[in-house]
Design goal:
This protein is of the alpha/beta class. It has seven helices and 16 strands. The strands form three sheets. Strands 5-6-4-11-12-13-10-14 form an eight-stranded mixed sheet, with helices on both faces. A six-stranded mixed sheet has the order 8-2-1-9-16-15, with helices on both faces. Strand 15 and strand 16 form a beta hairpin. InterPro entries: FAD-dep_OxRdtase, FAD/NAD-bd_sf.
């Protein structure tokens, strides 16, 4: 058993990112994963890192903004340390504009982004013909383009984090293992939410199933698309991911079923480049959704020296750099920088 200053339980994006950040700050880190790295939704294929709309601002939106703005340096550091490419690129996102009302709203949001995004990213309108053969048809002829959205490949990102943690001298152990004495951070995804609910005697969240598809399509330099509720995300390896469903009623979260096929058909109709592209993988997994819908971070109630980082749901990869920062602040330095609405007690 490795000697550690901090033990992280869970090999998903929150656990891996926190372990990396703690190791980067000089702590001896031990990460334990019971099954396999990315066993839950962090082993998926989509990897859309996209912001909330720039209006009705709140702490959750601010936290996510800060995390997205940190992402380039975060992932560059991971790649440089472990020599594994996480597939990160900030290439923006396009959304079709449905009608005049949506066009007016988009213009208002552009002003909001100018004020709120610190001049470090834009929310703007571009003509649809600027992206021939890629962008969905837009009834108004306009697209919203934001330059804050980014992508990464979830599986490549997980592998990059494992390599970086080990390069810093941390231990990554897969299989049955118990935490050693000392601080323990539980980042155990949907199963962890169920265990935490049982331990506290009240529901604090649950798993939501998602299904996604992977197309063979070389579009590595293209922005991601968001249209009709669907994310279309090009990766650097010659694939395009499409997802995902949100299913609360399911028997087996890892089984792909016929609820995915309408998404595949919709993607082909929306994106000209996917019309004849082959589907090379269909994926299903369960994402951890906290009661508050925000990440659930902080001390485990009534368990001294134990902490929780859970509830990434659909935005876990986008939130991971900032989640790692505030959890390392808390566990290593005793500084509580977790914003209101993100605390464990907000879900009780």
């Amino acid at each position: 058993m490795a000697i550690a200053d901090v033990t992280v339980v869970g090999g998903g994006i929150f656990g891996l990112a926190i372990a990396w950040e703690c190791g980067r700050r000089g702590a001896r880190v031990r990460l334990i994963e019971r099954e396999r790295i990315g066993a839950g939704s962090s082993g998926g294929i989509v990897g859309a890192l996209a912001p909330h709309v720039p209006e009705q601002w709140n702490p959750k939106k601010q936290f996510q903004l800060e995390s997205l703005l940190m992402a380039q340096d975060f992932w560059d550091g991971v790649a440089a340390t472990g020599c594994v490419d996480p597939g990160y690129a900030r290439l923006g996102r396009l959304q079709p504009v449905a009608d005049d009302a949506a066009l007016a709203l988009a213009k208002d949001r552009a002003h909001g982004a100018e004020a709120l995004w610190q001049g470090r990213a834009d929310w703007r309108l571009v003509r649809a013909e600027a992206y021939p053969g890629w962008a969905p048809e837009s009834p108004t002829g306009w697209l919203i383009e934001d330059t804050l959205s980014a992508r990464l490949h979830p599986r490549h990102a997980a592998a990059a984090l494992v390599a970086a943690i080990r390069a810093k001298g941390g231990a990554v152990e897969v299989g049955a293992a118990d935490p050693a004495p000392g601080p323990v951070i539980w980042a155990t995804g949907a199963p962890g939410l169920a265990e935490l609910s049982a331990a506290l005697g009240r529901p604090v969240g649950a798993g939501v199933k998602g299904q996604a598809a992977l197309f063979a399509c070389a579009a590595a330099d293209r922005p991601q698309l968001f249209a009709d509720g669907l994310h279309i995300v090009p990766h650097a390896d010659g694939t395009v991911a499409v997802g995902s469903t949100s299913e609360r009623d399911f028997e087996d979260g890892r089984v792909v079923d016929d609820r995915l096929e309408p998404l595949i058909d919709k993607a082909r109709a929306l994106c000209p480049a996917l019309a004849d592209a082959a589907v090379i993988e269909r994926w299903a997994g369960v994402r951890p959704r906290s009661k508050s819908r925000a990440p659930m971070l902080g001390r485990w109630p009534e368990r001294a020296g134990q902490f929780i980082a859970n509830g990434g749901f659909k935005i876990g990869f986008g939130m991971a750099p900032k989640v790692a920062e505030v959890m390392a602040d808390l566990v290593l330095e005793g500084r509580d920088t977790i914003p209101a609405g993100f605390r464990v007690e907000d879900n009780l």
